[in-house]
UniProtKB/TrEMBL annotation:
Homodimer. This is Bifunctional protein FolD. It comes from the Bacteria. The keyword Amino-acid biosynthesis applies. NADP(+) binds at residues 164-166, 234. Its EC number is 1.5.1.5, 3.5.4.9. The gene is folD. Belongs to the tetrahydrofolate dehydrogenase/cyclohydrolase family.
Length: 295
């Protein structure tokens, strides 16, 4: 078994981004700027956004975290998004999900200018991704593709099984792996909560991407010998063993599955770090105007 080491790959790619950012800042006369909107007080979301902001600063971006109370109205949030869309000093805008129940995430996603949608969630970016056109690719799937690319894993012709069909990971991941690209060119099965005989489906996978959000959901008996296993899960459990007061678990039973896998991502230290790289790369591209030309 070999480790798909998110720490090593993200550190290298972060250095590349930092170098490019320094050059771009000279040319633009300002730093790339990412705004993240966070609503409410979900512990996980607060941690993720704080990490995104910290990483922005580390590579030389400006970052702004707009943190609103749970009680903000949908109207007020949409008005704020419209204001940011118009602000030429801001290159990228993300709204951390999930949102409180009274705010429609679809409305919010579509309100963001697709040229600033560095999460790649806007239908225009999704459609363009499916067509293999320049676009912003959702950060987690993008990070996974960068990781496969880094280790020069040739996925062409492989059978890929994606577990979980979320808009954020499973669904875009299945599109990317099926695209005529490298990595890509897989025969993809997208499985979900209604899939029958899930174990048999996952056993077919030369590549398995686990994005269900349930601790140790993928067990050794579900995984083919020699499979490449990508664990997207970040399941937090309270723990007295760690300084933070919680411990992270993946969607894959690493201990057992790693005995069968050819390659596997650890949790933590795997996909999570690559998600950040995906977001940073999208923001850099947005500032450069290479995906969509600046007006
Ligand atoms: N919630 C979980 N993952 C993500 C992400 O990549 N972007 C946003 N905006 N919200 C998320």
């Amino acid at each position: 078994m070999k480790l798909l080491d998110g720490k090593e790959v993200s550190a290298k790619l972060k250095e590349d981004i930092k170098r490019e950012t320094a050059e771009l800042t000279q040319t633009l006369g300002r730093k790339p700027h990412l705004v993240a909107i966070l609503v409410g007080n979900d512990g996980g979301s607060e941690t993720y956004v704080a990490s995104k902001m910290r990483n922005c600063e580390q590579v030389g971006f400006d970052s702004t975290n707009l943190h609103y109370e749970d009680s903000i109205t949908e109207e007020a949030l949409l008005a704020k998004i419209a204001e940011i869309n118009q602000d030429d000093s801001i290159d990228g805008l993300i709204v951390q999900l999930p949102l409180p129940k009274h705010i429609d995430p679809e409305k919010v996603t579509e309100a963001i200018d697709y040229k600033k949608d560095v999460d790649g969630f806007h239908p225009i970016n999704l459609g363009r991704m499916q067509r293999n056109l320049p676009c912003f690719i959702p950060a987690t799937p993008y990070g996974i593709m960068l990781m496969l690319e880094h280790y020069q894993i040739n996925t062409s012709g492989m059978k890929a099984v994606v577990v979980g069909r979320s808009n954020i990971v499973g669904s875009p991941m299945s599109i990317l792996l099926a695209r005529n690209s490298n990595p890509g060119n897989c025969t993809v099965t997208l499985t979900h909560s209604r899939t029958q005989n899930l174990k048999e489906e996952v056993l077919q996978g030369d590549i398995v991407v686990a994005a269900i959000g349930r601790k140790n959901f993928v067990t050794a008996e579900m995984v083919k010998e020699g499979a490449i296993v990508i664990d997207v899960g970040i399941n937090r459990e309270n723990s007295s063993e760690t300084k933070s007061g919680f411990k992270l678990y993946g969607d894959v039973d690493f201990e057992e599955v790693s005995k069968k896998a050819s390659w596997i991502t650890p949790v933590p230290g795997g996909v999570g770090l690559m998600t950040i790289i995906g977001l940073l790369k999208n923001t850099l591209e947005a500032a450069k105007g290479t995906v969509y030309r600046k007006a």
